[in-house]
Design a protein that fits this description.
Order of helices and strands: HHHHHHHHH
Shape: globular
Radius of gyration: 20 Å
Structural class: mainly alpha
Largest sheet: none
Number of strands: 0
Helix content: over 70%
Length: 296
């Protein structure tokens, strides 16, 4: 019974993804997303190994801050640009920015400019942080029916799980063979391919999802939104859980690298394999999400 139920959910997932990808523009946007998420997790593995070899455990912690803090500070303001420009162009710009940061990281690695590798990691983190909201805002304008939009959202989750699985596996193998620089370069090529795909997206009927513009500025709007969440118990709980999950995820990102080197006596490939396990969990979660319809 359990096996039959699992197979049924897998079929639903495959059918949903196939249904979404039959739309050429959705397929191109999802290809860009797949390239971005694969590059992101490949970079995570290579950058973590690079940081550990550069400065040990402390450097891995600094690497996590470098990757995430600039994006956390800038993204709430930069994301508003996605409402000021065509979203497909904003998505293209972020993919090209990420590819540029990765290519520069590869060059800095080859030149032994370690501090520049950290700097370009911050730029890459910002670009990939903004790709997700741009994609999610774009999909309603690409889907031809509500059912197709639901399928596209399912495809996004599935591709994220696959990218989180494939990216670290490839990165682990390449780091073990040639070092982090090759991973940076390969991830840059993947993002360029994703940018080429999304550059062909054509929006026929644009759906506007943007909120009214707050003339007092993005910063004031952000404070107002946080205050509204703080006053509402249910949204406060959901946001609190998201913050807790992000905190644990950040700790895990450091612990994976440390455990690979110090507990398992492994190297870059061990970091890749352990990180790929997150992708396995993501795929399982995507299958499980197919059963959530109509529940509280």
């Amino acid at each position: 019974m359990l096996f039959n139920g699992l197979m049924s959910r897998l079929r639903q997932l495959v059918e949903a993804v196939a249904s979404a990808l039959r739309n050429a523009d959705v397929r191109r946007a999802e290809l860009c997303w797949g390239a971005a998420i694969t590059a992101e997790w490949a970079h995570f593995v290579a950058f973590g190994v690079f940081a550990y070899e550069y400065g040990g455990v402390a450097a891995v912690g600094v690497a996590g801050v470098v990757r995430l803090l600039p994006a956390a500070l800038v993204a709430p303001f930069a994301a508003s640009f996605g409402d000021r420009f065509p979203r497909e162009r904003f998505l293209l710009a972020m993919a090209l920015l990420g590819a540029l940061a990765l290519g520069a990281s590869a060059a800095a690695f080859a030149l032994d400019a370690e501090l520049l590798v950290f700097g370009f990691a911050a730029l890459f983190g910002l670009s990939v942080t903004l790709i997700r909201p741009a994609l999610q805002a774009l999909l309603p304008s690409l889907a031809r029916t509500p059912t197709e939009l639901i399928a596209a959202n399912g495809a996004t989750s599935t591709i994220e799980g696959l990218g989180t699985l494939v990216g670290p596996l490839i990165a682990g193998l390449l780091v073990a063979v040639s070092g982090a620089g090759l991973v940076f370069a390969g991830a840059a090529v993947a993002l360029v391919a994703g940018a080429m795909a999304v550059s062909r997206v054509r929006v026929q009927g644009r759906i506007e999802l943007r909120a009214p513009v707050d003339e007092r500025g993005v910063g004031r709007g952000l404070v107002t939104g946080l205050a509204a969440v703080a006053r509402a118990p249910r949204p406060r709980l959901v946001v609190g859980l998201a913050v807790a999950q992000a905190f644990v995820r950040g700790c895990l990102n450091v612990l994976i690298v440390v455990a690979a080197f110090r507990v398992l006596d492994g190297g870059g490939e061990a970091v890749g394999y352990m990180t790929a396990a997150i992708g396995v969990g993501g795929l399982v979660g995507a299958v499980g999400a197919m059963t959530l319809g109509g529940r509280r």
